[in-house]
Write a structure and sequence with these properties.
- The chain has 493 residues and is an all-alpha fold.
- It has 2 domains: 419 residues, Up-down Bundle (Growth Hormone, Chain: A); 46 residues.
- The protein contains 17 helices and no strands.
- Helix 1 runs antiparallel to helix 6, helix 3 runs antiparallel to helix 6 and helix 11 runs antiparallel to helix 12.
Length: 493
Amino acid sequence: MENMKRATKPAVICYGLGDLASQFVWTFVGSYLTIFYTDIVGLAPIAVSAIMIIARIWDAFNDPMMGAIAERTRTKFGRFRPFIAFGCPFLAIFGVLTFTSPFAQGSHAAVIWAAVTYIIAGMLYTLVNIPYGAMAAVMSEDANQRNTINSSRNIGMNLGMVIVNAASAGLALKFSGAGAQVANGHGYMMTAVIYGCISIPLFLIVFFTSKEVVQPVANPAKFSFKDTILNLAKNKYLMIITLIMIIQMTAFMGRIAITAFYVIYCLGSFTMIALIMTIPSIGGIIGSFFVPAIAKKIGKRNVLMFSMIIQAIGLIIMFLAPFDNIKMVLVGCWIFGLFNVGFPMSLSMVADSVDYMELKSGVRTDGTAYATYGLATKIGNAIGAAAGVLILGAFGYVANAQQTPEAMRGINITVNLIPAILFLVAAACCLLWKMSDKDADDIRAQLAARRGEKKEEVAADAVVAATAPASEVIAEKEVDLARENADENNVIQ
């Protein structure tokens, strides 16, 4: 494996800018869209829940198709890079449109507009981020560098969350007009415009600095939705890590979608959203610098498992903290944030599952495999947000009003206790993963040898074709075909 292809240092560093760009669009959507729908657009909690669930049902079909399309794409820029460059402007535009509502508050037209813009924004997120995520596995053959690449992504993700969560409340208030105590629709929309303009050049930097060095051994089969799903289902390790990610993302992204309710109505301050939502992201950045070294010692699976257990402990501390005990809330927040380092490990484990399936079947499914990550992110966000607002409604939440003690207890349960339980469940599911890091290295070594043999065969055929008379080449091909037919007949007999 001394001749493994690796990404350049600038490519590794700049790769994280892609997730930084994503957060400017998607974290803002995930953090503020739910409260925008309920408090600004005037949608009932059940309508918000329905929009989120319908969007995710569509994603169950859309995401695997996008992954299959991407891995079958062949351009001079590679299989995945073009989608980043051409999709990012449209993602930015619809990130803005989700925070608009040109129709009467609470009307049927407002519901339809919200559903259409949100679903299209989700499709464009898929268009850009599935190819972006798949690139981590094709930028390098080195497992340790893949961990570093995904850690770069995790730093970009958390840095984006820090910026978005620290700046959004202030920006939204500023654009809402002088003296505003809470953000209005114009404030949310203008904040989305600023973030969209920032995201486009960041995505383009990733496009220009990255390179796809790992190519599949076999040519892609003709697209079939059924075969695509079957290939995913046959990959037992992909199914395990997908299960873990869905639970993990439901806890993490779902919590983000409703944390604003906890800060505004339980802690009593709109401006504290920046502090409470920024601390976990800062902690995640700090923790990410140590992840590659720790993963070398105890393995990717164990890093992922223990990180989620400790995150659950942090959330339980926050759940038990009285609303006026801000110090205890912040302690739980820091514990939760410092161990927010599981995502690069789960991404590296997706890459291991892709290598495993290629060795087993000869089919490399980078795009469709990473579609499961994007789908898990959106499912987590939707389930957490949809279930969250329904739970809030069941506990008596009323928009733009002083909440009852029962409603505040429901908010606390939804934001802190339920995600803690989900993290513990996801940690337990990690025990299903039996492939060690050494096993994954052995698989990559076998694949590298297979690719080398394939290149030698192609080169040898090219030499024969160039030097031998056409009649001899044809005759040789006919002999080879006859032998293959004879072998097949013997097997059948």
